[in-house]
Amino acid sequence: MNKTEISEIKKLFKNEKCCISRICGCYVDGNKNKVTTFKEAFLSLPDEEIFKYFTIFRASLSGTLGKNLLNMEFPLETEAEGGSQDFLLRLRDSHLGDDELLEIFYNRIIDNYVYGENYLILLIDASYDVPGRASDGFEMEDSSDYVYEHILCSICPVNLSKEGLRYNSATNSIENRVRDWLVEAPAHAFLFPAFNDRASDIHGLLFYTRNAENLQSEFVDGMLGCAVPMTQKNQKETFTEIISETLGDECRFDTVKTIHESLNNFVEERKELPEPVVFDKTDLKRALEAGGADAGQIEKFEASYDETAGSRTGFVASNVINPRSFEIKAPDVVIKVSPDRTDLVETREIDGRTFLMIELTDNVEVNGINVKPL
Hints:
By secondary structure, the chain is of the alpha+beta class. The protein is built from ten helices and 22 strands. The strands form eight sheets. Strands 1, 2, 3, 4, 7, 10, 11 and 14 form an eight-stranded antiparallel β-sheet that branches. A hairpin with a 5-residue loop joins strand 1 and strand 2.
């Protein structure tokens, strides 16, 4: 799913566009015991509750694509009878009306979700009449000929509210506040099936994690049956390792600067696309060649890439480079330059010592004070 498709589904979580038919839930304590379960017709709930659920569901589709929101594909074996994809498909097609399937669903989450405190599992069934679109891109609400049937599961921590005092208007007094168990914003969620090309894609799903470094790998593998992707941190570390190993002793300032410029130009050319920009093996190879890597280094790169990341792995651009800043770090010094003005920075050798040179203009500030370059 791309940003546009995610936004289209996210906009459904409001009263005027609501397409949710049923909501189910299971409250789990820190010992993995089911405290209570419920199943309701969603639109029969009080308006105040519906509004609060909408907030949770919108949060389940929020964040940065490629960091907090991850597209995942099901391995072929999960689509066989009894596989994780097959189970989710049967759950969706039941419209959450099969209590036995719901019980199995809750149990699978409890068995695979690693969390030592209380949490709430929320599951909704929804059917979206996808509007047609005119040639100018505007939606035609009365021309829908396709229904996107989907489920959204949100897993929300439940914690005690903080201690404190409150004002009691009934007694006109200040008194101790009763602590309540509060349902917080979701920590993890998934939308099934994926909404690709504005239609159901039963071979994939969209996964949400509030903390980009906590992907719940046991849950992704054991419950969803999908391959666990690299986290943002792992992508950055792996990317850095590949470039460093490839260049070896030739990993010099000018070379890395040229590689960064090449990758940044690649991102700039694709900034209008709804999908996040991803660097694959070919893209990085092209950037290394632009930086002057020779045949031996390219051969070393290909071997390192396959061994470290895998030939089919891609790196989300925003996870491995900063398109808004070119940063140089040294002990006690950090320099940040606009990525389109890296020409202002160069290295120079003076009296046998290497210096980083930055061209100064007439507009220079030191601690907010305008100063003259000389």
